[in-house]
Amino acid sequence: MIKIREATKKDIDTLFRLILGIAKYHHQEKYVRTNGEELLRSGFGDNPKFGALLAEIDDEIVGYLSYTWNYSIWNGYVYMNLDDLFVTSGYRGHKVGFYLMRHAQGFCKDKGIYLIRWEVEKENKKAIVFYEKLGATMAEKGIFRWKL
User: Tens of pLDDT along 59-86?
Assistant: First the structure.
């Protein structure tokens, strides 16, 4: 049985391991700049900058979904910005990602939030098919990054 729960301070090492796992999966380990101390400070202080949902099967953490809250000035409401969705290799294809996404959906609805937004690489066809099966649609829009 898949259990979804919010990450706590006790999960920092596991969360960091999962972040490294998704970075490795996408061959982007060199871009990870955070560490356990930063995650603890940024996610679990008085003013958390992010949240994370964890997926457990038989007391083993097998995936996560991380998010931040953003505000749309055009629409006049807060929405969830999904940062990462990752399932460890042995559990892909077992609906872990589906349950993480559905939990995020319910979590938002309970807070009166009706939009979740995220990015996906156009070449990541498996992810696109997965998200479309959930009922999500992909907008065609370029993303700029300006490192200062």
Answer: 999 999 999 999 999 999 999 999 999 9
One-letter amino acid at 68 equals T
Among the listed residues 33, 13, 35, 32, the one whose alpha carbon sits nearest the alpha carbon of residue 23: 32
DSSP designation for 90: G
List the chain domain ranges. Answer: 2-134
- With tokens 């829009």, the residue in question is 141
Our CA dihedral for 29, 30, 33, 34, rounded to 10 degrees, sits at 20
Show Cβ contacts of residue 88 under 8 Å, excluding neighbours closer than 6 positions: 18, 21, 62, 63
DSSP state of 147: -
By three-state DSSP, how is residue 25 classified?
helix
Q: Which fold has domain 2-134?
A: Aminopeptidase (3.40.630)
Distance in angstroms (rounded) separating the CA atoms of residues 63 and 119 = 18
